[in-house]
Design goal:
By secondary structure, the protein is an all-alpha fold. It has one domain (15-85, 96-125). The protein is 66% helix and 0% strand. The chain is built from four helices and no strands.
Length: 141
C-alpha cells in the first residue's frame, strides 16, 4: 500500500497549482493577443510578431521555472486553447481573429512559437539540477 505523507501531498498540490497558473497565464496571453494582434507598422504586423515572441519567451521561462518541459506545455496549451477558440466563427459568422496578414501571423506564427518553446525546453538542460556527490568523489584523493 502506497501512503504519501503530508509533505508529499503539499508538494504535489503546489506543483499542480503552478501548472494550472501557467495554463491560465497562457489563456490570458491568448485572449489579449487575439484582440490586440492587428497593430502594424506599414505592411509589417508588428503586434502579431510581438505576441509570437512573447509566447515563445513565456514557454521557455515556464519550463525553466518549473524545471520541466511541462511548464512550457501548460503555457502553450493555454495560449492555443484561447487563440483557436477566439478564431472560430460564432453563430452570426463573426470572428475575433480575422483572415488577414496580421491574423495569420498571430495564429500560425504563435502556434509555431509555442511549439518551438516546448521543443526548445526539451532540447537540453532547462535549469541546472542540484546533484549529489558523484562516485568519483568517494574515497581518498
Amino acid at each position: 500500500m502506497n501512503v504519501t505523507t503530508g509533505g508529499q501531498r503539499a508538494r504535489l498540490l503546489a506543483s499542480g497549482g503552478a501548472y494550472l497558473v501557467l495554463f491560465v497565464f497562457g489563456v490570458v496571453q491568448g485572449m489579449m493577443g487575439s484582440f490586440l494582434y492587428a497593430g502594424t507598422a506599414g505592411p509589417v504586423p508588428v503586434a502579431a510578431i510581438g505576441f509570437c515572441v512573447l509566447i515563445l519567451v513565456t514557454c521557455l521561462l515556464a519550463a525553466w521555472g518549473m524545471r520541466s518541459a511541462g511548464g512550457a506545455l501548460a503555457a502553450a496549451l493555454g495560449w492555443i486553447a484561447a487563440s483557436f477558440a477566439l478564431a472560430m466563427p460564432v453563430s452570426n459568422g463573426s470572428v475575433v481573429i480575422t483572415d488577414t496578414t496580421p491574423g495569420k501571423w498571430y495564429l500560425y506564427g504563435g502556434t509555431v512559437a509555442a511549439l518551438a518553446g516546448v521543443l526548445g525546453s526539451l532540447g537540453g538542460r532547462i535549469r541546472a539540477q542540484p546533484r549529489g556527490p558523484s562516485p568519483r568523489d568517494a574515497g581518498p584523493r
